[in-house]
Design goal:
With 120 residues, the protein is α+β, with helices and mostly antiparallel strands. It has a single domain, classed as Trna Endonuclease, Chain: A, domain 1 (3-Layer(aba) Sandwich). Helix content is 33%, strand content 36%. It has three helices and five strands, in the order H-E-E-E-H-H-E-E.
Length: 120
Amino acid sequence: MAAKDELGRAGEERAARHLRAQGYIILDRNWRCPQGEIDIVAQRDDVLCVVEVKTRRSVRYGHPFEAIDERKRRRLWRLAYAWTAAHPDAARRREIRLEAIGLIGADADSAQLEHLVDLL
């Protein structure tokens, strides 16, 4: 596995730990469908949260959140609706929210973590 992929996996694991510590329940990870992949699907209270995780070694090529542009947000919404269609019992009568977690650092366990709770 490439070092970039290992860092990404470690970042997703750290993000999941962070979410659990904040009271989220992880419902799914790395869910795939023909439209793409959702990093983490979680629940907090009555909100279904689709969480995009971006991990970078540094900000040399920009902040991790800069990779989540309007096109990516539209794609995440499509994926969120695809997930709810595939899991109707888990998604029933829940508000859906897009969230993002960005990690910056060579080691995901000690990287700086930022959590955006609502991507509009």
